[in-house]
Amino acid sequence: MSAPTYAARVNEPGNPQRLIGELVRGADPVLSFEFFPPKTDDGERHLWRAIRELEPLHPGFVSVTYGAGGTTRDRTARVTERIATETTLTAMAHLTCVGASRAEIRRVVGRYADAGIRNVLALRGDPPGGPGQPFQPHPDGFDYAAQLVEFVAGLGGFSVGVAAFPDVHPEAADANADAENLCRKAEAGASFAITQFFFEAAAYFRLVDRVRSLGCDLPIIPGLMPVTNVAQIERFAKLSGTPVPADLVSRFHDVAADVDAVRELGVEVAADLGARLLEGGAPGLHFYTLNRSTATREVARMLGLTTPA
User: 266 — phi, psi (to 5°)?
Assistant: First the structure.
């Protein structure tokens, strides 16, 4: 007897994993969380504590990232599988083009399918040398995220998500070219997008307007990162190319010496941004948790944003 297809394996009876592309088109906004694979035993304890503390909020889904340059692929797969099989949560796996052949990507996708995972975020990924360095595809791999999307979507049974950039991808010629690229990923089979974190609601709505003007109705979930560490957010913003408004930088520097005040301000800023986004029609909010739960839980509860079990 031949092995079951990907579609059959991820749609087995009793599999609780929901399709995110369908979920985000529902009437209620979707709450979701992102984690990263830990490098140490202590880091793993922090991760699972955060997962268990956030699980009662009944998020629509959670995701686990790849490390820079496609590193941590095995740890990402292992953590994602554990979430899918050992918790009540719907898990979304990350997948990048970096350093991987088509055969290797197929094996990773098959591993996800075996664990009942039905959702994949397909990314080109940052070059191993870091942002700003030229991207070198694997000789038997993919050059662009749209190609990876088409490949995974073609296997059947998966809801494929992609990245979006309210402040425009650093390598895009301009905002219109960036929106056109997002639409190409939708045409290739993407059913939803999640944005890089950002700090101004207007940037998100401009992105949505550009995409809609091109006739693309891809749901775009805004990504938020509650600031709890001033130096950390400045470093992340530099790496991602995300501008931090000068007035916001000033507000955080005014309280930088007080850890509790920084966290309180971070929660306030994220809750205000989240409220503006939801009022404007965003299909949900995706939180970059940094494997910590407190600030994210506070923001979610301030917004009254939970998904019924």
Answer: -60, -40
pLDDT per position as a tens digit, 21-56: 999 999 899 999 999 888 888 888 899 999 999 999
47 secondary structure, DSSP code: H
Q: pTM, whole model, 2 decimals?
A: 0.89
Contact between 34 and 65 (Cβ < 8 Å): yes
Active site residue 34: yes
Identified catalytic residue from 34, 81, 150, 298: 34
State pLDDT tens for residues 150-192. 999 999 889 999 999 999 888 888 999 999 999 999 999 999 9
φ and ψ at 305, to 5 degrees? -105, 100
Task: Specify the pLDDT at position 78.
Answer: 84
Spatial distance between the Cα atoms of 134 and 294, rounded to a whole number of angstroms: 37
Contacts 24+ apart (CB under 8 A), 85-88: 85/115, 85/116, 87/51, 87/55, 88/16, 88/55, 88/309
Task: Please state, in angstroms and rounded to a whole number, the distance separating the CA atoms of residues 35 and 65.
Answer: 6
Q: For the chain, which domains are there? A: 6-303 (3.20.20.220)
For residues 160 and 187, give the distance between their C-alpha atoms in angstroms, rounded to a whole number.
12
